[in-house]
Amino acid sequence: MVIDFNNLNINQLYYKTEFEEKVKNFIEEWFSDSVMVKVQTSGSTGIPKVFDIEKKKMISSAEMTCNFLNLQENASALICLPIEYISGKMMVVRSIVRKLKLVVVDPSAKPLEKLTEEIDFCAMTPLQVENSLDKLNLIKNLIIGGAAVSESLKNKITDTLKLSNSQTQIFETYGMSETLSHIALKKIFPQPEEYFTIFENITISKDKRGCLKIFAPNLNNEVLQTNDLVEIKNENQFKFLGRIDNVINSAGAKIFPEQLEVLVKKKIPNEAVFLGINDESLGQKLILIIEGEETKDIVNEISEIKFEKNFHKPKEIIFIEKISRTPNGKINRIELLNLIQKNDGIITKR
Fold first, then answer.
1. pLDDT digits over 140-177, tens only?
2. Which one has a higher pLDDT value, 343 or 57?
3. CA nearest 316: which of 297, 339, 290?
4. Alpha-carbon gap, residue 219 to 179, rounded angstroms
5. Which of these, 264, 267, 269, lies nearest to 286 by C-alpha position?
6. CB atoms < 10 A from the CB of 281, how many?
7. What's the pTM value of the predicted model, to 2 decimals?
8. Buried b (16+ CB within 10 A) or exposed e, 30-51
9. Could you give the CA distance from residue 62 to residue 55 in angstroms, rounded to a whole number?
10. How far apart are CA 275 and CA 93, in angstroms?
């Protein structure tokens, strides 16, 4: 199904799949008299819930993204994310607001498998990107959200696209349900960026803990307090350091596991997670969890990593068959920590 929002006739939208029907139903809901739209949470942090969002705020969010990416009327977009969630709904709203031509593809792990023509704009999850590397050159502007983009995936993207002379731009997103999708983007390709750049009409600051505060009056009436530790470069840019919930305190030193994971994933293709486990002398002992079987190559690569601080080097390396994840693909650190402490499912300890 292709929907031209510059020449829309809802009654002439003919669907062939259940997903296409859901997209049509949402478009009908959007053009109804209601000022609100119902959105479902993913349930990754609890029981899935349905809540209402004002259409005017979704329009503001859509305009921010379209302006940032310089999307013009009649450009093409592709939706391959579930329409129940904010990510899928916002793809439709952006297409409505900017009068794009929307290509509707059923959500799957390989959404670009049958794509043969260039698309101006698309949003995908890391898993979808991982399975679509050979078609990324057909997407001019790609945003990746839903979970963090691993260093391994970033390397695969660069290795694939640099050989194709592609004009593709790829961004990592930063956002949450309260900000109606993302409020900042960070370029991955062609020139990787270290800092997220926020959209217009958004103000950022830090609380006493060093966690990000967001004021986006067009999206939410309240100042949003996050638990994300950040470094603010200027009024428009910030670097994500890690979740304050994940900070490891080892012998009085604060360690940001996400930063160490970035360093390790530049060296090995495996998923890697740093955790702090209870220790009588250190308080928390820094350990490194590697997904997959132990190999000499992986052990050697890790041993050669030059950590900034001596206490950043893991006291123990554990190889595990499968790392725990939430339903939307994020690392489930709490479950993984419980698993390690119970010594259940571990392949090898070093």
1. 999 998 877 888 888 899 989 987 777 899 999 998 77
2. 57
3. 290
4. 6
5. 264
6. 6
7. 0.82
8. beeeeeebebebbeeeeeeeee
9. 10
10. 40
Contact 181, 145 (CB under 8 A): yes
Cβ atoms within 10 Å of 249's Cβ, excluding its own: 12
Residue for token digits 């939706």? Answer: 79
Burial of 212 (0-12, 13-18, 19+ CB in 10 A): buried
Whether 267 contacts 226, CB under 8 Å? no
Contact present, 16 and 83 (Cβ < 8 Å)? no
Tokens of 244: 């304050």
One-letter amino acid of 333 = R
3-state secondary structure of 221: coil
Query: Is the distance from CB of 98 to CB of 62 less than 8 angstroms?
Result: yes
By the 10 Å C-beta count (0-12 exposed, 13-18 middle, 19+ buried), 296 is classed as: exposed
Per the document, the length of the chain is 350
Exposed, middle or buried by CB within 10 Å (0-12, 13-18, 19+), for 183? buried
Q: Which H helix or E strand runs over 286?
A: strand 283-291
Q: Please give, one letter per residue, the 3-state secondary structure of 302-346.
A: HHCCCCCCHHHCCCEEEEECCCCECCCCCECHHHHHHHHHCCCCE
Q: Which are the contacts of 72, defined by CB distance < 8 A and separation ≥ 6? A: 98
